[in-house]
Amino acid sequence: MNNNKKNYDAVDIAKLFFCICIVSSHTRLLSYIPGGYRGEINAVLIRASVPFFFIASGFFLYQNVQKRGAGPECRRYILRMLPPLIIFESLGNIMYIAYLLYQGKKISNIFRLLFRQIIFYPRSSMWYLQACIVGCILLYGFFRWKVPMIWPVLLGLPLFGIALLFNNYRFVCDRLGIGRYVDAFLKRYFSLRNGVFYGFLFLAIGGAIAEYHLIDRIRGKLLWISLILACLLQTAEFRMLLGKKHADDGSLFACQVIVVPLIFIALCQCNKKFKYSAVCRRYSTGIFFLQKNVQYAIECLAAVLSIELAAGWKFLGVLSISTVVCAVCYRYFPRLGKLLQ
Known about the structure:
This protein has 341 residues and is mostly helical.
C-alpha cells in the first residue's frame, strides 16, 4: 500500500492537541492536577509533544525527499523553517534584552548571554526549529538519504542517551563522577535538546516509519498491546526517576523512543476524515510559533503591574491571544498568515 495516499487527518488533529499540551506545560497548567496523577500525565502525555512533532516532521520529510530528491527537499524544508526561526527568536530576544536592562544587567553581559543562546538554545521555543534544521542537514546531507534509515536510528540512540544524562538521568552522572562537568556545561550551553542529540533521532524514527511501512506492518492487537505496554513502561520509568536528581527541564525519557512512534503509527492508521483537519494543522503551527512570545509579554506586563497571574489565567491568555492573532493573520494578512503555517 502506498503511504502517500493515506489520510493523515488524525495526525493534524493530534498536532493541535499536542500544541495545546506545550502551552499547558509552559504555563504550568498541570499544577491544578493532584500530585498523584500530575507526574504520570506529564511524563506520558505532555512530554510526548515535542518528540511527536519531530517524528511527524521526519515522516513527511522522508516522503517528500522520495518525491523531490534530498537536495531540493532539504533546501525547501530549511528555507521554510528559517523565517519563523529568525523572526520569532528575534522578538523573544528583544523582550529578553528589555527585561534584563530593566533588572540593571550590563549590556556586555546581556549580549554574551544572547550570543550563546542564539547558537546553542534559541529562545521563544525556536530551539525546536533550529533542531529540525540541524537534524535535516545531518540526516539528508551527511547520510545522503539513500542509506537505510535503520543506520541513522542506531546512531541517534546513543546520542539521545547522552541527552538523557543531561536531563532526567542527571543522577547517573554523579555516579560516574562527571556531575560537576555536566552542570558546568549546562550552565554555559543551556541544554542538549538540539538537532544533534535530540532532533536527529526522532526525525530518523519518522523516516524509518515511512521507509519500512510500519504503519501497515504494526496493526491491530499488536499495535495496541505494544502501545499499552510501552505507556506502562514509561510510567514505571517516571516512578523510578522520582526523587532522583535531574537537569534541564526534565522532559526526556528513554521510553519516548517507543511510546511516541507507536502513538504516531496509531494515528496514521485512522482513515476517518475530519472536516477541519487542515485548520488544526495551520493553527497548531501558528500557535506554537506565537505562544512563547505571548507568554513573555503577559508575564512582563504582569510584573510591571505587580499582578500575580494564576496558571489557569496565564494558559487561557496565551492560548486565546495566540489563536486570535493566528485567525486575524490568516484572514486579513496573508503574508503574515503564510509565516504562521
